[in-house]
Amino acid sequence: MDGPDLVRRVAAGVLAVAVSGWLSTLSYGAGGGLTASASTGPAPKAGKRPAAGSGAAKPSAPVRAPLPVDCARAKCVALTFDDGPTESTATLLDILAARRVRATFFLIGQNAAEHPELVRREVEAGHEIANHSYTHADLGRASEEKVMSELTRTQEAVQRASGVTPVLLRPPYGSTSRRLTSITRRMNMAQILWTVDPLDWAVRNSRSVERRVMKAAAPGNVVLMHDIHPTTVAAVPRIIDRLAARGFVFVTVTELFGGRLTPGKKYVQR
């Protein structure tokens, strides 16, 4: 083969390769015609989803917690919810997230063990979680052995579910004693009672719960409710909206008391 022949054949081969590469970047558009693709690589295989980090959808981030509030100046109120988590807790978390409100949840240990995913969700959303005994026992009348069992098992259940160890206790029924005070001091937990009780456990009526909270709420209050009752959860949106319209700011219990709570001490109102 002479020199000119060889040059012509090499040139033809290069052109064929170039044309082939260009054609590989074409695809059929919505109208049925060919359109140029932005990618020069091989097309993804049918049925394959993009790998994580390559544009795949990511779960939404938790609601960002608001900046710290000075409750010595602001009209602060702490919404607290007892006895969960249960199925209705998920609905309540949706409500709080939509309104960017954080609350404090006093958890029953056996419920935390049964619904660890809800405990994790509470923590991820910026809520405060606390101890409410393992079986809703009357801690004020219980023996030291019983108290230690109720509190320790709840601490362990919450820790396993969320990685958080509570530093607050709400004694069921508000029942406390010198013995409980001594034990909570050793266990590094403050005792949290309440100022406003709408009796939502007795009167399962959303409007009644709303009216009673609105009538009693004042700056520095700790509001007691129960997320185990769907009627209470249904009252929460209007309670939040009406309190916000009156200038209230929603904080956790620890924030309400300035972040300085003494183990063993009982707290009712700021």
How would you explain this protein's 3D organization?
With 270 residues, the protein is an alpha/beta fold. The protein has one domain: Glycoside hydrolase/deacetylase (TIM Barrel), CATH 3.20.20. Helix content is 40%, strand content 14%. The chain is built from nine helices and ten strands. The strands form three sheets. Strands 3, 4, 5, 8 and 9 form a five-stranded parallel β-sheet that branches. A three-stranded parallel β-sheet has the order 6-7-10, covered by helices on one side. A two-stranded antiparallel ribbon has the order 1-2. Helix 2 packs parallel to helix 8, helix 4 crosses helix 5 and helix 7 packs parallel to helix 8.
Question: Features of this protein?
Answer:
TIM Barrel; alpha/beta; 270 residues; single chain; five-stranded parallel β-sheet
